[in-house]
Specification:
The structure is a single chain. The chain is of the alpha/beta class and 243 residues long. The protein has 10 helices and 6 strands. A 6-stranded parallel beta sheet has the order 3-2-1-4-5-6, with helices on both faces. Helix 6 links the parallel strand 2 and strand 3. Helix 1 crosses helix 4 and helix 3 crosses helix 4. The radius of gyration is 19 Å and the shape is globular. Its cofactor is Mg(2+). It is an enzyme of class 3 (hydrolase). InterPro entries: HAD-like_hydrolase, HAD-like_sf, HAD-SF_hydro_IA, HAD_sf, PGP-like_dom2. This is HAD family hydrolase. Its EC number is 3.1.3.-.
């Protein structure tokens, strides 16, 4: 069956989150005078990424809400007790630097232009609507998407099938007419495939050591490959684009 719509992940798929987070936190740590406790900037950044992964997992498991995971990221990273206001203020100072480094990947606008007439478009993110709606507006692509769905409001997050099916419901399309494009091979790739969508894993880092079975996500290294893949619709038994 033809693919009629593409649902997109945002962070590290459309938006270069990793670079913005790294550069934003680097500038924030320098401004806050917090590098003295680390051997290097990279050590501090790795600690921040580790804490972020841990707290995000708690949010994804619905153990805490979106605001709490942000506050706890700050408390755990700084290793001190903080009121909600203190944690919010510290995080918002980081956000100022983080937002100054926001950018789309260079292959995003060309592929959105190429697919504008042929496919409908939506967003499904494990973040919050408040965060992603504003981000997409600042990046100038908000109007490219019919609907923007986020885990904080849905009450279900990727890789659970319910998240992907909610996006299909919002588009009033069955899963086999919808493609999902995301950067994480399990959360995005495996989750979308298991929910019955055409799953496309954008593997910008070229992690070819990961084995992709025929029934799993289609792996691409650049969004430039997406239009041809959608036209072919290679879900059923065809080899991945990396052979």
């Amino acid at each position: 069956m033809d693919i009629r719509a593409v649902v997109w992940d945002v962070d590290d798929t459309l938006f270069d989150y990793t670079t913005a987070d790294r550069e934003g936190m680097r500038a924030h740590l320098v401004a806050e005078g917090l590098l003295a406790g680390y051997g290097s900037v990279e050590e501090a950044l790795e600690r921040w990424r580790e804490v972020t992964r841990e707290q995000w997992a708690r949010f994804a498991a619905r153990e805490v809400d979106f605001e709490t995971q942000r506050r706890d990221r700050t408390r755990v990273f700084l290793r001190r007790e903080m009121t909600d206001t203190e944690a919010d203020d510290w995080f918002l100072r980081y956000v100022t630097y983080y937002e100054s480094a926001w950018s789309l990947f260079p292959d995003v606008l060309p592929v959105l232009d190429a697919l504008a007439a042929s496919h409908r478009h939506a967003v499904l993110s494990n973040s919050s609507l408040h965060v992603q709606d504003r981000k997409l507006r600042v990046l100038g692509v908000h109007d490219r998407f019919e609907t923007i769905l986020c885990a904080a409001e849905l009450g279900v997050s990727k890789p659970e099938a319910g998240a992907f099916l909610a996006a299909c419901d919002a588009l009033a399309l069955p899963p086999d007419q919808v493609a999902y494009v995301g950067d994480h091979p399990e959360i995005d790739g495996r989750g979308a495939a298991d929910a019955g969508l055409l799953s496309v894993w954008i593997d910008r880092g070229g992690d070819h050591a990961t084995v992709v079975p025929p029934e799993g996500p289609r792996r691409i290294a650049s969004l430039d490959e997406l239009p041809a893949l959608l036209a072919a619709d290679t879900r059923f038994g065809a080899p991945s684009t990396f052979g």
